[in-house]
Design brief:
3 domains, alpha+beta, single chain, binds ligand MTE, binds molybdenum atom, 19 strands, 12 helices, Sulfite Oxidase, Chain A, domain 2, 5-stranded antiparallel beta sheet, 5-stranded mixed beta sheet, Immunoglobulin-like, 22% strand, globular
């Protein structure tokens, strides 16, 4: 029985080795063309928006491992089938394996920025996979005899010892692990090098005041450290960009097309701004918001290099190195707000995860219509002519961030001792600023919270509220008011198509 299943194991091992080899080759050439990643990206692109929304909500940052795991599981089942088939009819089994690699090749080619080089990893996967499966079957004597050698040798092969089988499978498994390790190592080496020195800003931001975190344990830090900053994007691998060969092209409806190197950009007048970034997928009370000090060139100055005074464009279509597109409404971006072509975040170069070497940051617009990471092209065009990734998926094109507030502490459904409890959190209303936050306990009256320091209208504000809690279960809610006097709405909206709204209310247990 077990020996009957051995060919399935061979199929799986051969496929793993083939994929590992392809991954290594991809790491050396085009990382995103690695078969599993290419398949994953295409699955992401084809996934309907509501399912994607659900995945981001359910799995959070783990949405990508979950996706890659699912793709891998399907592939390995098919690989097992290929192995079983190959033991009966070698050509049939091998064609299934090669077919799998071919699908990966097609998916790699479907990626927006794909070139012929993207086919190489899949070809390697096909070759290595088929060869390994054939070898394993031969060594263990399960293969048909393609050369039609004598019956004697076949019989001898059929009785291949358990030792041989163990050696062959173990060898294949080891080889797969070693090659996969090499692929990992190569990508890690390629990912080094964001520790470049940035020039100082000509226009510096004032020192950030001390926040409330000393006094209110559990509250979000006034400035989000880079390592804790939320990450939302469609990239399955963080693009490995070599800053020396990177360039930014500005084209489309401009006076002259220009191409800038990183040094060109970093040599322009740099400004430093404190800006809170928010994701449209953030649910009320959700984690996809972060506040940082950005270093960059004012967007207007960059666009002026190309000349946009007579442009008929209504959007900037930003493209990243993998072909992902993010649109920015031109009028909004140039209405005087501090839109930046950013190269630094919290005193260092942008981390790879957050767009190294260059990204956009536009205060007041959700990230999906502003904050293009790994940006390599800005095309001045119209929404009629060209649609960005999310525009094609029916999301809003001009999505201002809604007034919002979040309770960081206590945690929902946590237990606290009766008596004085400090409730705390953050509130944001980019562009206008936060004037007040109020807290409501058990549906009672709204009472003012104490506000933390003000670091500008594009930056969030911490708040805290002292509450004398009696034993029992209680409901705590918060809401913000901006400096225009607009109060955060209680009307609930889903993230799609232009951001969530509503008021966060949590239950806490007081004992
Ligand atoms: N190239 C690229 N840029 C991107 C995205 C993306 O998928 N690809 N996602 C956007 C979205 S939806 C958000 S909310 C912000 C998040 O930026 P962060 O990951 O640095 O927090 O990046 C934006 N920029
Ligand atoms: Mo987002």
């Amino acid at each position: 029985m077990l020996t009957r299943l051995l060919p399935a194991l061979y199929g799986i091992l051969a496929t793993l080795l083939g994929m590992a080899a392809a991954h290594l080759i991809a790491a050396l050439t085009v990382p995103a063309a690695s078969p599993v990643l290419a398949a994953g990206s295409t699955v992401i692109d084809l996934t309907p928006t509501p399912v994607k929304e659900w995945a981001i909500r359910t799995f959070g940052t783990a949405d990508k491992p979950v996706l890659i795991g699912s793709v891998l599981a399907v592939v390995l089942v098919l690989a097992g089938v290929a192995g079983i088939l190959a033991a009966r009819r070698l050509a049939l089994g091998l064609s299934v394996l090669v077919g799998l690699a071919a699908v990966a090749g097609v998916l790699a080619l479907l990626r927006p920025s794909a070139g012929a080089l993207d086919l190489v990893p899949s070809a390697v996967a096909a070759l290595v996979g088929a060869l390994t499966l054939w070898l394993l079957l031969r060594v263990s004597g399960t293969a048909e005899d393609p050369a039609g050698e004598g019956a004697a040798s076949q019989a001898a092969a059929r009785t291949a010892s358990r030792r041989t089988v163990l050696l062959a499978t173990g060898g294949a498994a080891l080889a797969a692990a070693a090659v996969a390790g090499a692929g990992r190592w190569v990508s890690q080496v390629r990912l080094r090098g964001t520790d470049i020195a940035l020039p100082p800003a000509a226009d510096r931001a004032a020192a950030l005041p001390a926040g409330l975190e000393e006094r209110v344990p559990g509250i979000s830090a006034f400035r989000t450290p880079n390592d804790d900053f939320y990450r939302v994007d469609t990239a399955l691998t963080v693009p490995a960009i070599d800053v020396d060969s990177w360039a930014l092209t500005i084209d489309g409806d401009v006076d002259r097309e220009v191409e800038m190197s990183f040094d060109d950009l970093a040599g322009m007048r740099l400004v430093e701004r404190d800006i809170t970034l928010t994701c449209v997928s953030n649910d009320v009370g959700g984690p996809y918001v972060g506040a940082a000090r950005w270093l960059g060139v004012p967007l207007r100055d960059v666009l002026d290099r190309a000349g946009i005074d007579s442009t008929g464009a209504d959007q900037i279509l930003c493209t990243d190195v993998d072909g992902m597109t993010i649109s920015v409404p031109l009028k909004v971006a140039l209405d005087g707000r501090d839109a930046l072509v950013a190269i630094g975040m919290n005193g260092e170069a942008l981390p790879r995860e957050h767009g190294f070497p260059v990204r956009m940051v536009v205060p007041g617009l959700y990230g999906f219509v502003s904050a293009c990471k790994w940006m390599t092209r800005m095309t001045l065009t119209t929404y009629d002519e060209q649609q960005a990734y999310w525009t094609e998926r029916d999301w809003a094109i001009d999505a201002p961030i809604k007034i919002s507030s979040r309770i960081d502490t206590p945690r929902p459904l946590s237990d606290s001792a009766a008596g004085r409890i400090v409730v705390g959190g953050v509130a944001w209303a980019q562009g206008v600023g936060i004037r007040g936050v109020e807290v409501r306990v058990d549906g009672g009256p709204w009472r003012p919270a104490e506000l933390g320091p003000d670091a500008g209208d594009d930056y969030w504000r911490q708040w805290s509220y002292e509450w004398d809690a009696e034993p029992g279960q209680h409901f705590v809610a918060c809401r913000a008011t901006n400096k225009d006097g607009d109060v955060q709405t209680a009307v609930r909206a889903t993230p799609f198509p232009e951001g969530s709204s509503g008021i966060q209310e949590i239950a806490v247990n007081v004992g």
